[in-house]
Every structure is written in C-alpha cells, then in structure tokens.
Amino acid sequence: MSKEDVFIGAIDQGTSSTRFIIYDGSATPVGSHQVEFTQFYPQAGWVEHDPMEIVESVKVCVAKAVDKATAEGFNVDKNLKAIGLTNQRETTLVWSKSTGAPLYNAIVWMDARTTAICSRLEKELSGGKSHFVASCGLPISSYFSALKLLWLMENVDAVKEAIERKDALFGTIDTWLIWQLTGGVNGGLHVTDVSNASRTMLMNLKTLDWDASTLKELGIPAEILPKIVSNAEVIGNVAAGWPFAGVPIAGCLGDQHAAMLGQACNKGEAKSTYGTGAFILLNTGDEIVKSNHGLLTTVAFKLGKEAKTSYALEGSVAIAGAAVQWLRDSVGMISSSKEIEELALQVESAGGVYFVPAFNGLFAPWWREDARGVCIGITRFTTKAHIARAVLESMAFQVNDVLNSMQKDMGKVESSDYLLRVDGGATVNNLLMQIQADLTGSPVIRPADIETTALGAAFAAGLAVGVWKEEYIFDSKFKMKDATVFRPVMAEEVRAKKMNSWCKAVTRSYDLADLTL
To answer: What region holds the Carbohydrate kinase FGGY N-terminal domain (predicted)?
Structure first.
C-alpha cells in the first residue's frame, strides 16, 4: 500500500464553523467539508454556542467530506487509519453524565461575563491577578475555562444540582466531542489533552496534571474533570452510530497548538494564526519561560505518552477577523469578508485613522478588561476605505504588539534571521500580509495550505499510528514548499511613528466598560 492509499481524518472545530478534512499519506487533502453554526449573544459581552449543534455539524462534515473524497476515486472507507481532533480552546460546558444533555450552552472563549468573578478573585487571593501564574502560566482572566466553570457553578441551578448528584462532567469542546464520538452515555471517554488542559487555568505546567491547590482555592471538584492525555496517542475508537466506527481517535490538540504543529514550528520559531482572533505562539522547547511582558506561558505540544513536552509563549488577540465580520454583519460596510481588501486598496494609507477592536476588552499584551472599541483620527477627509484599511491595520498592530513582547522575553531576534509563519483564513488577504510584514519589519511566510490547524491534528493522529515520523513533519523543505513570502518595504521611521500612534490609540480605549447604554 502506497502513502497515497493511506488516509488520516481531521476534525477542525472552530469558533464559527466546523470542518472535516481527509489527508492522504503525503499530507495532501483529498476531501473536505465545512459548515457554519449559530453564534448566540444573549447580552452585551456574552457569547454562547449550542453543544448539540456542534455535534451535528461534525456529523454533517464527516459524511460530506467522505462523499467528496469517494467521488474523486479515493477509497477512504477502507483505508482511514486514524482521526485527529482540534478545537476552539477555553470554550466551556458542563453536561449530564447520565443523560448526555448539556446543562447550559457552551460559554465561548471570548465571552466576558466572568469579569466580576475575576475582580473578586483578584481581591480575595494573595497573589492578585497573577495568583496562579506559577502553576499554570496564566493570569486570572475571563478568557480561561476555570472562570467560566465558576460562573456556571454559581449561576446555573442545573449545574449545581448535577455536581451534588455526582452527575456532572466538565469539558472544553475537545472533551465534549471525544465523549460523544466514543459512545456518549454508553461508555464515552472523558478525556482532554495537555494543550487544552493548559488553557483552563487548572493544570500544573510541570506535572501536566490538575493542580490540587488551585482546585481547592477555587472550590472546583476534581471528579468533574477529564483525564489528561498527550497530543499524539490512541485515545479510543469511534463508536457505533458514527461514520468510521472502530477507527481510532489518535490525536487531539487545541487549535493554536495544532497550527504550531501544522507549521512545524521548532524551538525558537513562531507562528500567527488569523481567525476570529489572532494567536501568536513561540516554541520555547522544553523550557517553561515566564513572561514579564504580558504573554502567557503554555504547552506547545507533547507528541506521545513518553515524549518530551514542548512549551510556548503565547499572545492571544481577542478580535482580529471578527472585526471584519463586524464591518460586514453589523455595520454593512462590506457584503463579504473578501471585499475588505479591495476597499482598503482604494487608499494608500488609513489617513490617520486608528481602529482598536476592544469589543470585549483587550488580551495580550495589554490585558485590559475595561477597554472597549474605539475609532479615532476621523476627519471630513475620512472615507469607508480609510476605515477598512484601519481595521486591517488593527489586526497587524495587535500581532506586532505580541511579537515585540516575545522578543523582550526571549532576547532580541535579528530581523534578518526572523521569520513569522502565518496561517488561517484571513491570510488570503495579500494586503493584510504586506501590512504585517511592514509593521513587523521582518518577512512573513504564508504556506501553500493555510489551513494548518487541521493539518496539525492530522499530523498528531498520523504520528500515533505510524503513518508519519517526526522527521518528516519537521522537515524544512516540506515547510517551505510553495510558500509565499511577504517582505517589508516600509521605512523604519514611518514604522516607528505608526507604532507610537497605535499605542496612543490603544490607551484611548481604556476605562470605557461602564459607559451608559
């Protein structure tokens, strides 16, 4: 059997859509399908998903992708060796062990309803906002799962009662889907992986297990938490009733960690994924690096039960592509996301306009939950093209803020040697990529396949079942094959002035959360 006759499937469950991609043994996609699902906004700052709708979206994507691959002549049914899973991180839900029913909608990672809980904990705990950083690498923030779980425990009666009855299961989306895929109420496996667990605020980065002291301080019962496994190992088999029953689920990573693997980032290499938000990770190898400049310390990946753990510094940007969606859906300035590039190209600059998309506060490196979106520098000269360009620039500015913090934490990286690997849907926008290169002052490399998140999940599963070896995945020639490179052309003086103006605009977004409606 040749490499092309072996297939690996990847479930890519994102913030706004689910995909299933089938790869052959040379890591070439041969079939895929994607569906969007509903976003719920019950109140300002709240974002929820229907967990059952997500399960259904996976079923549809798997069936449709298989149909497409089969129509192209690929015998996927008999030769699918494993399935990998990647997912939106931090998004939190609790469900009934006995009925399988969610006890509340999933609270999405960008949801800001836990701000009051964060403030309370910062006052109550001796270490304030950084109280748990030594164990988990994360500050107290509405971003992370532990705070969302506390909100559910304090505000949802069904969750309180299920915990008292020992009938509650907690999980992020990976845990929920694996439990469903492996049988649900009929013996479903309650597990998560080290990368997703590292985003809950509950896992100890050194032991890779739930931190007992953190659980005690927060009052979270250990029995509702899933077992933690590595990113590349056979977790269990798909249950009857699903397509590919009996096929092993052999890889699981949070989406940004999967993108790191898909981009084959070795120690010292960084990638930026542009989706709803933007997420920049720098592989620090087996060293746990504490940030002094507003970044998060997290797991990169652990590629097997006995494998060494690679760690990372991460900067998370809450609103990136979501700002373009806002221009399209809420403002009506564009009718499709791809139109923003054409509109922004009508002007040579943003005309002094700066847009700070702090819709639910600012994440790294600022960490200002009191910030709200602002658009400043508007004059009678300003057109919608200037605003469109300012929105694109805001994505690049925020990524650059994180990269600057990474350089401060890790030591200055010479620009002639530094490359930023990029991926995600927004990277098809050539103007955005050129703006990013100009503001970073370093080359930006876009791979031929920009959907590296799904590829990373496939790589993890393929590693676990012997389809690929690490040497193949991390081969530099494979990484650079057919890549597009964007090189900076902006003068250093202009770059410095624009960064100063951006920082001024960011400060204007502070202390606006209590504006009267």
So the answer is: 8-262
Distances, alpha carbon 214 to alpha carbons 202, 334, 494, in Å? 6, 46, 47
pTM (predicted TM-score): 0.87
CA pair distance 515, 261, nearest whole angstrom: 42
3-state secondary structure of 250: strand
Mean pLDDT of all residues in 446-460 = 90
Any residues with CB less than 8 A from the CB of 158 and at least 6 apart, and which? 103, 104
Q: Check: CB of residue 41 under 8 Å from CB of residue 32.
A: no
Distance separating alpha carbons of residues 465 and 230, to the nearest angstrom: 14
Q: Which helix (H) or strand (E) holds 458?
A: helix 452-464
127-136 contact pairs (CB < 8 A, 24+): 129/367, 132/201, 132/211, 132/214, 133/290, 133/297, 135/204, 135/205, 135/211, 135/213, 135/214, 136/198, 136/200, 136/201, 136/202, 136/203, 136/204, 136/205, 136/211, 136/214
pLDDT at position 476 over 70: no
| Total Cβ atoms within 10 A of residue 455 | 29
Nearest alpha-carbon partner for 288 in 271, 262, 308: 308
Please tell me the distance from the alpha carbon of residue 354 to that of residue 314, in angstroms, as a whole number. Answer: 25
Can you tell me the distance from the alpha carbon of 239 to that of 456, in angstroms, rounded to the nearest whole number?
Answer: 23
Helix (H) or strand (E) holding 172: strand 168-172
